[in-house]
Amino acid sequence: MLSGGALSAGAMILTGITKEISSLEKVMTLVVFPLFLFSGTFFPVSLYPDLLRPVVQATPLFHSASLLRALTTGEVGMQTLWHVAYLIVMLGVAGAVSIRLMRRRLIS
């Protein structure tokens, strides 16, 4: 639920800043597909170049995949708490921003 909330709050930000519904499909394709591809789900992050690795580790889908991997393999440790904290902060910040953007868009 935490992963879904954090990722959907980020998607709502995209919805709030998109001018037309027809351009939302393009924005989602340009953002979600690379996010999914470079999340560490298919390939270990250690295989990525050194310049790309910090970018990958800053994405919420990387933290979601790492958290779920740790929970399913039983390798829960202090790094797992970092993933949880990141997703909680992402949910809070992105949720607040998306609420503000959607209020502005729907009420104004």
Strand content: under 5%
Shape from CA axes? globular
Q: Give me the strand/helix succession.
A: HHHHH
Mean pLDDT: 88
SSE class: mainly alpha
Number of domains: 1
Count up the helices.
5
User: Share of helix among residues?
Assistant: over 70%
Rg calc: 15 Å
How many strands, which pairing sense, and closed or not: the largest β-sheet?
none
Write down how many β-strands occur, each being a DSSP E stretch of 2 or more residues: 0
Distance between the termini: 31 Å
Low-confidence stretches: none
Describe this protein with a few key phrases.
108 residues, globular
Q: What's the short version?
A:
By secondary structure, this protein is mostly helical. It is built from 5 helices and no strands.
Characterization of this structure:
The chain is an all-alpha fold and 108 residues long. The chain has one domain. It has helices at residues 2-17, 21-37, 53-57, 60-73, 78-107.
Topology:
Layout (H helix, E strand, L loop, with lengths): L1 H16 L3 H17 L15 H5 L2 H14 L4 H30 L1
